[in-house]
Amino acid sequence: MGKVKCSESIDFRAMSSMSDDNTLMSIPAMLDAVQDISGIHAYNIGISGPDLEEKGIFWIVSRLKLRILRRPDENEELTLSTWIQRPDRASTERDCSFTKGDEVLAYSRCIWAALRRDNGRIAQMSTFYPDSTFDIPRPDEEPFARIGKDFSDAEEIGRYTIRSVDIDRGGHMNNVNYVRTMLGCFSCEELRSMDIKSLDMQFLHQCYEGETISIRKREAAEGFEIGILSGEGVLAFAAAVK
User: CA-based angle 217:171:118, to the nearest 5?
Assistant: First the structure.
């Protein structure tokens, strides 16, 4: 197999169904778009979820950062792009951007790994990941945020019982729905005053339909941190928000 195309770009419109009360594309909708363009490119180069299932492997996301310079206006037309970095032994990075001409509105960086279904162990990237030019640089070189894992003393700001609409094809709560749940603990007025520009997220444990999860918040040197605990009290999701 020869080298695959390193990147994918599509024309994109921020539809009204993606907007929040400010008629701006919501943060969850932006993350949905990141998932969608990533899936399109993965399908086109033969490493989509169904492709890996045939090999007895499935993707997991461990870390994701989103940086927002400005959110797209409702019905604004832009370009949504994704590209892959050269993998290491056990993980790889996929980056995405929202652009309009030369203007970068937002970008993301995401760390992926793959697990074997037969034993739950990490699959070596060399066994399935395609070769490419890997010639597009990362959108930044800043390290992912470090977030302490103990939220036992953090303030509980909400509880949420996971429903059928939160579940994805993997049978567990979709990653973006942790962000929806987190943001849903705040009022529209509170979210406007926050004007979130930076999200660093860690996906640590899977949660399932019927579980009641606890959303915890603590202040940080800049912004605040969120921890979402599973029904068994295990940290499932953590985020640094600025």
Answer: 110
Nearest residue to 52 via CA among 127, 145, 139, 162? 127
Token couple for 147: 């977030």
Grouping H, G, I as helix, E, B as strand and the rest as coil, residue 7 is strand
Q: Is 152 left (phi over 0), alpha (psi -120 to 50) or beta?
A: alpha
pTM: 0.96
> Which segments of the chain have a pLDDT < 70?
1
- The CATH H-level superfamily of 7-127 is Hotdog Thioesterase (3.10.129.10)
| Cβ contact 60:112 at 8 Å | yes
In words, the CATH class of domain 155-241 is: alpha beta
Q: Look-up: residue for tokens 């949504």?
A: 80
